[in-house]
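User: My collaborator sent over this chain with a note saying "see what the structure looks like." That's all I know about it. Can you take a look?
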Amino acid sequence: MSVLPLVAIIGRANVGKSTLFNRLVQKRKAIVNNTPGVTRDRMYGQSDWLGHSFTVVDTGGVDVEGVNDIGCRAGSPGTR
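Assistant: Without extra context I'll predict from the sequence alone. Here is the result:
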């Protein structure tokens, strides 16, 4: 049995990650709402794109406020 490739949908809150996930799995599996923060748990599904099967993961939004260009939290040790 082979393991399918894993594709994670990651991005800012409320940009359409769950909508994309639902389109890929061709089901209304993830809750879609205009309110940021609705997706809290990861949701897994199977998809096929141009003959390539893979597992897709819907994730909650990433909060990037306070993160500088190199990905360090502003004010954390070592960034001052």
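A starting point for your reply to your collaborator: The domain at 1-80 is CATH 3.40.50.300 (Rossmann fold).
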